[in-house]
Amino acid sequence: MKKLPSPKIRDQVRMIPEMLRAPQPVLEELESTLGGVCGLGAGPMRMAVIGDPRALREMFALPSTSFRWGHKFNVLGFVVGSGSMVVSDGDDHVRRRASVQAAFSRRRLNDWIPMIVEQTDVAVERIEAEARESNAPIDLYTSGRALVLEVAVRAFFGERIASRAGDIGELFRRPQAYLESPAIRQLPHRLPFTRRSKVRADRSRLDEIIDDEIKRCRTYPTGDPNDVLEALAQDSKLSDAEIRDQVVTLIGAGYDTTAASLAWMLWRGALEPLMWGQLREEADSVLGHPTGSGAPIDHTQLAQLKFAEMFMHEVLRLHPAGVLAPREAATDIEIGGFKIKKGTLILWSPHLAGRDPVAWADPLRFDPLRFDGVTDEERKVADYAWVPFGRGQRNCIGLVLAQMELTLMIARLAQRIDLRPLAPLLPGPIGMVVNRPLGGVPMRVTFRDHL
Asked: All domains of the chain, ordered by start, with CATH?
């Protein structure tokens, strides 16, 4: 087995801090000079960066026991809790994930479809009211975050506390900012009046909300088949502390990442008016008039939004919500012909895989139709090169919900609004934990009065 190629020490001194601030340029530099599998750091701080899709296919095929997720570098545990499935290993992970996975049944997902469309219409009405009041550009990233949070709260809590979605979103604001702060600011401590203490207080308030809802679910169950929290509260496999950690994980991870993806979709649509028109034409045909009194939109219509789905796939190929995903090697392993020692932090990159020139023709060109009419061989390549949600046993548990949300939201938004960007070029990315557009999505928005 070969040793991982690594940059010179002087280059690493520059690269490592830069990657913690803005990883995309560093990842692309590493890939262009050393290839899709390389090393960084040394000793207990050694890392392996993997972006080559063929190497990723090997990594995902390894047994989960080859890796650890509850490792010393996983700072998510402070926010989502030590009982969260995303920082769990072994039997604990299997048990926690199985309980949550059962909540994402196909029936429940399908039943959420009308709610997603309804909340998108409500969001458009809010945007229209804001536009009338100020006559100024609107940051659709903020509007999109509010929309995705409304959907998440209704999906995971039911309608009971929908009115508290804003409060819940505010309690996630500081934890998200904390996770994206420099590593030196995330060192564990119990000091009062610090960022970390404020995040701890926000998590305590979230726990109070969830605890109240767990108690209510057990005392006054609604029987709502779409209420994830009620399903978890009735499941004896998880403790209340574990339920809290799973709910915080589902909302925090799901709504920030989906909101970031929606932001990139809006930018791409605004800069490609012909594609925006194609999204609209398809939505008009499939979804009908937004104020119509026909039957609620369901999974059969979602399946007909072919261009919206391809548009979503292409945006996530180029702009995955997570640029890097960490796991620690629990034993010596081989990936891409290279030896990776036990204890190495593996940073695998959906960003690099989605731009791999072997896997994708003209990889930087934005072309949703690349997913149309693909051959079996092309589908096989895309299967291991399109990995915004990961692969295998540790893939994103909410991947179906996220794709469903994004497809429905972009179709409905294209049907109801027109976008005029304030700048003619796509913004750069920002965010180490969640990849979102720098500066948000400032747009001039006009509204379609009729179909």
From this structure: 9-447 (1.10.630.10)
